[in-house]
Amino acid sequence: MGYPAVQFHKEKEVRRVVIVDEVALEDEEDEMTEEEEYMRKKDDEVARTRVCHMTSKKKTFTNVRRNAFLPRASPSWVETMSMGFSGKIWLLDTFNYLAPIDQRGYRLLASLTQEEMKAEYERALDMNTTPPKVKFPFNGDGIFLPPMSSMDVGKCPLPLPNVLIKGNKPPQNSSALAEMERIWNIGRSYLKCRCSSEGKADCGTGPSWFDHVIWFLLYNMDILYPDAPTPRAKVSSLIKCLSTCWKPLMLTSLSFGCGREVMMLLANKIVANPSLTIDSVLVRVNDVNRKAFKECAKLLLMSKYVKKRPRANEVCKGSLVNGPLGRKRWEKLKAKEGSAHKFVHIHYVGRLMDPLGDDDDDDDDDDEEEEEEEEEEEEEEEEEEEEEGEGEGEEEGKKGEEEGERGGKEGERYSGRAQI
């Protein structure tokens, strides 16, 4: 009986040692996991700092900051590109992109009804993105907006930024690109720091579109709810916030998205056919009598930025001038020399729209080609006239010879009669 008892105690000690070793291994694995998690977070912070450094360097040393204008990118492309910046769409080439949230996304996030969706669509067609009984700067009950520095270290650290609406104020720079950027974002809600409103100097960090902020918070919900125990609790808290105190801002973004679709529809038609006018661009368009379509057509096709080319049956203003070989040719009257229209055309190059003026190489090349064609036509007309003149001279010479022969015969007859 003694031997089995001793064997039992020995096996018990072995099991205890094995259990202790397993616990030690689990602790080491947990420590390695925490260390790896810490290193991963540090790598993310270094990458974000590097991106912010490159962004600040670009803002400091580049004079063409925010000069890109790429509004025709697809939502899937914007979503893919924003993943490299942790959802910060404003770090892309331009801030004219719209957050890739469609109408179904707004309906889900803000818990909207079908009637509310239809009402926002009707307001968008009336060029009014502000919900009823809502005033901007927006300051609803219980609203909390995080400081802009929590979303981007390069932005203003003051708490409680304002929420404003982009108005129709003319830009200081009267170029076609500045006008296009202005009209492309009319009625869009954005966050602005309180530096100017509190009497301080403007920090110069620039605003952030509200739809960009929503997209960023979907990627980084720890900013609003750092103490939430689970991701499900964070999502529930965010949806509750968007459907209650932030609901007017969500309705504004939804209405602006509908208006942007109208702009995109007309812009795509203009890209396909740049010769369209304010009236012809609205042909075969539904709801053409609504204010949104008419106003967007006027904004996209401003008379001072649209190049008017004369038709084939129209008479161009100009005068006859002496060419280098002494021949006269027809020269068009330029805008700087007379009352002709000043030609400025908004030219689409890929996804970038650049304003082209009278001094561009393309217009000069067109004028030179037209002048060469006119000179060739005049030379052909002169050669035809010379050939016609030579043909008429030969016919007149033949007629003169025939008349001379007849006169000689008649003279011989008269001389014979005189002799008789």
Report on the structure:
The chain has 420 residues and is mostly helical. It has 3 domains: 26-63; 66-272, no CATH class; 309-342 and 359-389. Helices cover 51% and strands 7% of the residues. The protein contains 10 helices and 7 strands. It has a 3-stranded antiparallel sheet with strand order 1-2-3. A two-stranded antiparallel ribbon has the order 4-5. A two-stranded antiparallel ribbon has the order 6-7. A hairpin with a 2-residue loop joins β6 and β7 (352-356). α8 crosses α9. The termini are far apart. Residues 57-67, 336-364 and 411-420 have low confidence and may be disordered.
Fold topology:
Blueprint: H1 2-61, H2 75-83, H3 103-110, H4 114-125, E1 162-165, H5 176-184, E2 189-192, E3 208-209, H6 210-219, H7 231-243, H8 247-272, H9 291-300, E4 318-322, E5 328-332, E6 345-349, E7 352-356, H10 361-419
Antiparallel strand pairs: 1-2, 2-3, 4-5, 6-7
Helix pairs in contact: 4-8, 8-9
End-to-end CA span: 191 Å
Strand content: 5-15%
Number of E-type strands: 7
Biggest sheet character = 3 strands, antiparallel
